[in-house]
Amino acid sequence: MGFHHVALATRDTAATHEFYTNVMGFSLVKVVASPTPGEHGGWSKHFFYSTNGAGGQGASGDGGMIAFWEIHDTEIGDDFPVDINTTAGLPWWVNHIAFDAPTIDDLHRHRDRWRTHGHHVLEVNHEFCISIYIRDPSGNMVEFCHTTRPFTDDEIAHSNAMLLQGKPEFNGHANATVHQPIPLHTNA
């Protein structure tokens, strides 16, 4: 079963919208404005993006969505934390949101779009999947991941055996590459 949506707070709607439409390639599909709970007269905008890109329908059964909250509430204030790792006291790479890249060509297309938007892109070959990573305007890490092969029965059994081990045997190091931004050429 897939997820319907993941929701995060933002303090900069314009930067969030630019990032998730132009850099990530998602489509804005719905904005809901409503009062916030409580007696203090606050309000919010909850805005949803289809993760299927242009024309994706999100909640219609063909994929999930990511949503954001723009909050205007005196009880909450306007300086609330929006980076889920910093808030939790964790390094930038721990909590993150991973989106599916069904083919290696999709993964490369996302990587190159990120690079043309000025991002350094971390690419990691985890053996069973290849992932690319950047951070959004709130500092949250986002990922596109392409699964390269099915899981074997032996691999699943081994995973179940090692899940609760105190210190399991290491799998080895992943192969990582940093891709530099692609400069946009302009004719001046």
Structural write-up:
- It is a single chain.
- The protein is α+β, with helices and mostly antiparallel strands.
- It folds into two domains: 68 residues, Signal recognition particle alu RNA binding heterodimer, srp9/1 (2-Layer Sandwich); 96 residues, 2,3-Dihydroxybiphenyl 1,2-Dioxygenase, domain 1, CATH 3.10.180.
- The protein is built from four helices and nine strands.
- The strands form two sheets. A five-stranded mixed sheet has the order 5-8-7-6-9, covered by helices on one side. The protein has a four-stranded mixed sheet with strand order 1-4-3-2.
- The longest helix has 13 residues.
- The mean pLDDT is 91.
How many domains in all? 2
Tell me the series of helices and strands, N- to C-terminal: EHEEEHEHEEEHE
CATH topology category name of the largest domain: 2,3-Dihydroxybiphenyl 1,2-Dioxygenase, domain 1
Task: State the end-to-end distance.
Answer: 51 Å
| Strand coverage percent | 25-35%
Low-confidence stretches: none
By secondary-structure content and strand pairing, the structural class works out as alpha+beta
Biggest sheet strand order reads: 5-8-7-6-9
Shape: globular
Q: At the first level of CATH, what is the class of the largest domain? A: Alpha Beta
| Tally of contiguous helical segments | 4
Sheet with most strands? 5 strands, mixed
Mean pLDDT: 91
CATH superfamily of the largest domain: 2,3-Dihydroxybiphenyl 1,2-Dioxygenase, domain 1
Q: In the CATH classification, which architecture of the largest domain applies?
A: Roll
Using the CA coordinates, give the radius of gyration: 19 Å
Q: Determine the fraction of residues in helical runs and give it as a percent range.
A: 10-25%
Count of strand segments: 9
